[in-house]
Each structure stands twice: as C-alpha cells, then as structure tokens.
Design goal:
It contains 17 helices and 15 strands. The chain is α/β, with parallel strands linked by helices. The strands form four sheets. A six-stranded parallel sheet has the order 6-9-10-11-12-13.
C-alpha cells in the first residue's frame, strides 16, 4: 500500500495491487496477471510465502513481464531469488521500487541503490540504500483504496475482546526496533536500519481521522513491532488524540518492560483498549539464554495485572519448542499463560527465520538440522528444524493442549461465550483458530 501510494504521488498513474489474501489460488493470480498484462510487476515475499512468490515470478517472467521481488526474505537472502527475477530490492521499497519503475527499460537501472540485478548473466550487487534519516512523514498514506477493504474490515478482529461487533483497520507508525531478541534480530535492522523511526503524532492522527471518515470504523490496531518504546512520543500522541476528539478505540503491540500503570492509564484515556504482549516463555532461562528477551517473569505478572485493573484487554504471545527447551519448560509456559489475567493468547512454534540470531544458533548446533524447505517455517503449525528431545508430534500436542487449556480456563469464559453467542464473533474466533490447524 505504501509503495503504491508513493508511485502514484510520483507520477505513475496506472498502479494496481493484486492481493491474494482472500483468494489464494494460483489460478486467480495467474488469470489476473494475464488480464492486466502489466509492464512491470513487484512481488512481496517473506519466508513463509517464498515458494508461492517464486511460482508467481516464473509465471510473469514466462510472459515477458519485468519482475521485481522484495520483502524480508529477499532482503535477507537475495541470492535465493536473483536468478528467478530481473531485480531484487534490498530493504525498504518505496524509493527503490519507484526508481526501478522509472528506469527499468534503460541502462540507468545500474545506478539504483538497494538492488541486485542480472546483467548478461552476471549478478550486480549495488550498495544498499541508507534510509536512517528518512522521515516517514514523507510517505503518503497507504493506498488502501485499491485493496478490498470491505473484506479486511469484515474479518478484522483485533478489538473483538472489547466487542465482537467493532470494525477497524491496522496502521503502522514506526519502523525498526531497538531490542535484540534472537528471533527478530538482526533481521529488523537489516530491513529498516538500526535507527527507530517514528511518524509524527500529527501525521498518525491525521491518518486515523481519514480512515474513520472514509471507512466508518470503530478502531485501529497499530502493528508496529513495539509501539511503546518512546514514552515522549506516546505522550504527545495520546494528548493530540484526545485533543482532536478522534473518538477511536485502539490497540498495539508492546513489551512488559516498556510500560507501567501510569503510562497505560494515559494511553487508556486516549482510547487504548487492547495490548498484545510478547511474553514468549514461562522459563527465565529460555527468555535470557535463548531468546535474549530482556524481560523478567515478575514484570509480566505485574504489568498484565495492572492492565486488567485499568480495563485494558490483553493478549499474550507465547512460543513453544525453542532449541534446548525441555518439556518442563514448555509446561511452565502453559502454566504461566493460565495464571495470568490475559484475555487472549497464541502459542506458536519457535521458528528460526533466516538471518536471525536464532537461526545461527540452530544452524551451528550439531544436535539440530534446519529444513531446506521454506514452507516449513510456518510458525503456526510446522517445525523448521529437527533434533533435540521434543519431537514435532509432541510439540504439536503441547501446542493444541495449550490453546485448549487456555480458552477453556474459567478466566476466559466471558471472552469465549461472547464469541459463541454472536455470528460475527464465531466467524472471527474460527478465523483465528484455523491458522493453527
């Protein structure tokens, strides 16, 4: 969406987005490409959808379309795609892809920073573009008008813990993260740079007002990796949100070591109703030695309880099956999840994505074997490495048991009953659960 709006603002009028979120068949994708017959196509790929992205790239290349690929996987492992595409974009895509669109028919493409490309069978690796001093306010709001927003709003469920009938969309206010968790870093730094960049509070509030007016929504969920890193920014944002009387509920991702009761009360006063906390494990050893999470279990309990007192609904992210994690430690994670005043929880399988410290940790440990099939890096229901004491079947058993135990626990009866006795709620909870099965 950001890339499309930036292209349009810079003179490329005929821009469309082929979004396969709600129709994932290759037949739909291929027929759409054949119908539109674009001059140039840009394909996003993370690791999970890498195989599908390659299939689309081949289809487009066979029809003489100039193919560009970007995204997290391409940024980390450009060598896995460069022989299948014309250009691989490294890092953020707005400036780079716009320049490729302007120059792809000429020799000037050789001057573009942040790309790899093929030239007469040779791979040219241009230096990456430095975006550290780029103001995110320079980018126009994402081009949501060329996405199927009715469907996105229909399935949006981020605030259904508050009410299953609430509608909304997601936003991003920042890029980057200063923390060094092994399952994310240094990949985030490679994509966005080491500097955490925020949009200005006014820019964010202006987009919120625009989205409310255009789509008649009730809420926003901020999908920043950690919205609550900068306390000063949060204060200015919350104050402006209240002053402008935007009247939207909102939620965000956070860490327990970046918020306290005072900060959450301030955020609540401006509309905050939901926080997703990365808790990950009930074992301090796993948090410290494996994930390098830099949080303490006592802080988890304190912050989640404070959120409950304020009236903020909470979700906990947990991971099972870290390298060297024992069955006792997995059971400690399950026990912790049941003891907390959380409204929702997800239990994913620890997945060492390429380029992360966790990936290097697994690759260098002779006990483990990493899969060569990137479709195995599905952290909802597959395991990307084998070895150790916990088999995949046992891990999946613990994952399903954790989900079942959490949502049948008396603390979650109100949440579950609200969904079961509402058609919208039932659809939303089934949509969430199908990721795991």
């Amino acid at each position: 969406g950001y890339i499309a709006s930036y292209l349009r603002e810079n003179g490329v009028a005929d821009v469309s987005i082929l979004d396969a979120t709600f129709n994932q068949s290759h037949e739909y994708i291929s027929s759409s490409i054949e119908r539109d017959n674009p001059d140039i196509i840009g394909i996003f790929s993370d690791t999970l959808m890498f195989n599908d992205a390659l299939s689309i790239a081949k289809f487009a290349k066979d029809r003489g379309i100039f193919v560009v690929m970007g995204g997290p996987h391409v940024t980390i492992l450009p060598e896995t795609v460069i022989d299948k595409v014309d250009v691989a974009v490294i890092g953020e895509g707005e400036y780079t892809f716009a320049e490729v669109v302007r120059k792809f028919r000429s020799e000037d493409i050789e001057s573009i920073e942040g790309i790899w490309f093929n030239k007469n069978g040779n791979i040219i690796k241009n230096p990456r573009r430095n975006n550290d001093n780029t103001s995110l306010d320079e980018f126009p709001f994402p081009a949501l008008d060329i996405l199927d927003m009715d469907e996105y709003i229909k399935y949006w469920g981020y605030l259904d813990c508050v009410s299953t009938g609430l509608t909304g969309v997601t936003m991003i206010t920042s890029r980057g993260c200063p923390y060094t968790c092994t399952y994310c870093q240094p990949t985030l730094n490679t994509i966005f740079g080491k500097k955490l960049r925020h949009r200005s509070p006014k820019n964010v509030v202006d987009e919120m007002k625009y989205l409310k007016d255009k789509y008649k929504i009730d809420g926003i969920f901020f999908h920043d990796d950690t919205l609550t890193v900068n306390r000063k920014w949060l204060g200015e944002f919350s104050e402006l949100l209240s002053k402008e009387k935007v009247d939207l509920l909102w939620g965000c991702n956070s860490r327990v070591n970046t918020v306290d009761e005072e900060l959450m009360r301030m955020m609540y006063s401006s509309g905050l109703r939901n926080i997703h906390f990365g808790i990950e494990s009930g074992s301090q050893r796993v948090l410290d030695n494996i994930y390098k999470k830099a949080i303490k279990l006592e802080d988890v309990k304190r912050v989640v309880s404070a959120a409950k007192r304020i009236g903020i609904y909470t979700l906990g992210f947990f991971m099972l099956g870290a390298p060297s994690e024992t069955q006792d430690e997995i059971e400690a994670t399950m026990k912790l999840s049941l003891s907390l005043d959380l409204d929702e929880a997800t239990f994913s399988i620890a997945t060492p994505l390429a380029g992360t410290y966790l990936y290097d940790m697994v690759r260098e440990d002779s006990r483990y074997t990493l899969s060569r099939d990137f479709s195995d890096f599905d952290y909802y229901k597959k395991q990307a490495f084998t070895g150790g004491d916990i088999t995949y079947d046992k891990l999946r058993y613990f994952q399903k048991k954790a989900l079942f135990s959490f949502y049948t626990n008396h603390r979650r009866w109100r949440y579950v009953s609200r969904h079961l006795f509402s058609i919208k709620g039932l659809l939303k909870i089934l949509n969430k659960l199908k990721r795991f099965f």
